[in-house]
Amino acid sequence: MSMEDVVERARRIVRPTRLEERALRRIVEKALSAARREISGVAGALDVSLEGSAAKNTWIRGRAEADIFIHFDPGISREELEKIIVDLGSRIVESLGGEPMIMYADHPYVEGIVNGVTVDVVACYRVEPPNWMSATDRTPYHTRYVLSKLKPDQEDEVRLLKGFMKACGVYGAEIKIEGFSGYLTELLILYYGDFLSAVREISCWKPPIVIDLERYYESEERALEAFPDSPLIVVDPVDRSRNAAAAVSLTRLSELILASRIFLKKPSIRFFKPIDPAPRIKELKGLIRDRSILYVSFKLDSPRPRDVLWGELKRSEQGIRRSLESLGFTVYRSGSWTDERRECLMIFELDGVELPRHHLHKGPPVYLRSADEFLEKWSRAAVGPWIEGDRLYVLRRREETAAHRLLRERVRSGQVSISKGLVEPIKRSRISADARSLLKLASRNDDLRRFLAEFLAARPPFLRK
User: Fold this and answer.
1) Residue 160: which pLDDT band, with cuts at 50, 70 and 90?
2) Gap between the Cα atoms of 264 and 202, Å rounded
3) Among 2, 117, 401, 440, which is disulfide-ready with 355 (CB 3.0 to 4.6 Å)?
4) CATH of domain 150-272
5) What does each C-alpha distance from 75 to 43, 78, 80, 436, 465 come to in angstroms?
6) Strand blocks (E) in 146-213
């Protein structure tokens, strides 16, 4: 299939259907009306607007979202604003027939699903750049900027890039993904002009990359000084002090570069296809066979905001990984999963789930006084002491060698760096290296099976067969 045929078919995949467009318009109209009605008489609430991809007509099929922003007077305190938006947002979502959920980013906002459309009710202060009082204050300016620059024929180009990123697993700026936001994708199309030009340029990227649409900085060097240690710098056109690509990790950036290069060599519609269905347990058995897998499974006491939970999971995953390494295990890879309500799981692939019964312990050089102390301390070692070169050595015997029991003891004694909010749930967790019990857990949840298949296959979506 030619590149032109692939892109044309991809347009039909990412472009919303007329039915979806009509459904979104209805929800947006109702949501805006409800918001205007609810803010009437609320001190400090000034106006209501539609923001995000719905306002810019860059949303893709299956991802209809209505971002309803309520603008507040800067005189309202942050604490008061947060209380008001939770109350207003909950009432607005309920009036539309949805179930409100309190979410957190820079500050709380309310989310609900209404007839398949995700409705977010968000607060922002009405301020002039660059006098931002919260992160969401920039969003209305982002919308205006994109609308003023984006040509009608570029809307589908944005959709193509979003669909490509989504299928490749790099779309989404949330902590769970650490990828490309919708706004960042729009900026890339504004900069490169169309989807294919963007992909061709991305395929040649070598970090660090600097993109400065408004040429705020006189050189790339100046931009790199302003945003050190960032693999991708896209200077926000509405705020020269902000990197619109700050959320993008080096891993996600590298995946996009490689996916773009492969796509250009072998164009295929699979680069735009949605996630595969959940695999069968039989398939997982084949993937997990002869692998050294350790997992930590636990339940939360109560639900918590999505981004808060993912931040806690990732920090705790790294803490457990460091603890396993300090015990003597080699951790090849690790990952985290949650249903974002109660169930959580962290998984680690090791070089083995049992340590050798004996391990080498290196002592000081013989010419140091501490050598005498070493000899006295280890005179009854399992093997040694012996001298090799100028140093003393012994083999020490381990009383416990199993990874799951060693980790459980460290967790219970507080020797593992775990996020404060997860300490008690992880102390009560199931820590196991038993593949059968892991597969039994996965048999109850399609999303968990999908996560395990992705983890065990160890291939980003665009490299899967």
Assistant:
1) very high
2) 11
3) 401
4) 1.10.1410.30
5) 10, 9, 10, 59, 56
6) 209-211
State the Cα–Cα distance between residues 431 and 39, nearest whole angstrom.
49
Predicted confidence at residue 382, as pLDDT, reads 81
Side-by-side strand order, sheet with 358-365: 358-365, 391-397, 383-388
Per-residue pLDDT averaged across 239-253, rounded? 97
Its pTM stands at 0.91
Alpha carbon distance, N-terminus to C-terminus of the chain: 17
Give ∠ CA 176-178-181 in degrees, rounded to 5: 110
Q: Could you tell me if 86 and 108 are in contact, meaning their C-beta atoms sit under 8 angstroms apart?
A: yes
Amino acid identity, position 5: D
Cα dihedral across residues 17, 23, 28, 29: positive or negative = positive
**Average pLDDT estimate for 252-281:** 92
10-37 average pLDDT score: 96
C-beta separation of 287 from 453 below 8 A: yes
Phi, psi of 389 (to 5 degrees): 65, -125
CATH number of this structure's domain 281-346+411-463: 3.30.70
Give the C-alpha separation, 187 to 243, whole Å.
12
CA atoms within 13 A on the CB side of 261: 11
Domain boundaries, the chain: 16-128, 150-272, 281-346+411-463, 358-397
Other CB atoms within 10 A of residue 275 CB: 12
Paired residues of 104 in beta bridges: 108
Domain 16-128 CATH superfamily:
Beta Polymerase, domain 2 (3.30.460.10)
Report yes or no: 450 and 460 within 8 Å, Cβ to Cβ: no
Q: Is the confidence at residue 39, as pLDDT, over 90?
A: yes
Cα distance between residue 322 and residue 415, in whole Å: 11
pLDDT tens for each residue of 321-349: 999 999 999 999 999 999 998 999 999 99
Q: Give residues with Cβ within 8 angstroms of 400, minimum separation 6.
A: 406, 409
For residue 243, the model assigns a pLDDT of 98
The answer to whether the CB of 175 falls within 8 A of the CB of 308 is no
Peptide bond into 237 cis (omega under 30): no
Instruction: Calculate mean pLDDT across residues 399-409.
Output: 96
Q: Is 101 left (phi over 0), alpha (psi -120 to 50) or beta?
A: beta
| pLDDT at 102 (0 to 100) | 87
Sign of CA dihedral 159, 66, 167, 184: positive
Closest by CA to 60, choosing from 48, 49, 52, is 52
